[in-house]
Design brief:
With 184 residues, the chain is of the alpha/beta class. The chain is built from eight helices and seven strands.
Length: 184
């Protein structure tokens, strides 16, 4: 079901097809662009409505330096120059290095890209998709897909603060008023 919805979004389809050829270790396309495509689909809106970026994440703890990530960011920028939204590439092995400056509190280093997805802000946005080495569509969703498909926004309190959650739900509710928001 989710694969059929997501592949109707031509931008997601292109990112998934091309990301496989970028030599990104253990990568996923995930978070807001996945949920927002599903919300748009069920709301009968254009599938790119209100999607400002797409999170392409990977995990490389063998070379977690800024320079290595920046080199990959440049490759991604070139590979996806025709995609109408920004592709935000992040090495999840580096997130702990900048998280405190950005969000105001420190986190421990992640041990895998899946562990990073486990901490994403809501149960319905803690979803990553990709094509595996055999070309099969793969979904990583530690909280399942029910909240996503039912358009329920529920906080994932593993890492975020109430303030971060509230900012997101206020913005999302303005774009998708039919969402069911679970209080903090």
């Amino acid at each position: 079901m989710i694969q059929n919805i997501l592949l109707q979004n031509p931008a997601i389809q292109k990112v998934l097809e091309r990301a496989s050829g970028l030599d990104l270790p253990n990568w996923y396309l995930g978070a807001g662009c996945i949920a927002q495509t599903v919300w748009n689909y069920y709301s009968k809106r254009p599938l790119l409505d209100h999607i400002s970026d797409m999170d392409l994440v990977y995990f490389d703890d063998q070379d977690p330096g800024f320079e290595a990530e920046d080199e990959r960011v440049k490759k991604v920028r070139d590979a996806f120059s025709d995609i109408p939204v920004q592709i935000d590439l992040k090495n999840q092995a580096r997130v702990h290095l900048w998280y405190e400056k950005h969000f105001g509190y420190a986190i421990n280093p992640y041990k895998s890209v899946e562990e990073a997805i486990d901490t994403w802000p809501t149960t319905g946005t803690a979803v990553g998709v990709k094509y595996d080495e055999a070309g099969k569509f793969k979904v990583y969703a530690p909280f399942g897909l029910d909240d996503l498909l039912d358009r329920v926004v529920r906080p994932n309190k593993i890492q975020i603060t109430e303030e971060i959650y509230l900012k997101k739900v206020i913005r999302w509710k303005a774009c998708w008023p039919e969402l069911t928001i679970i209080p903090w």
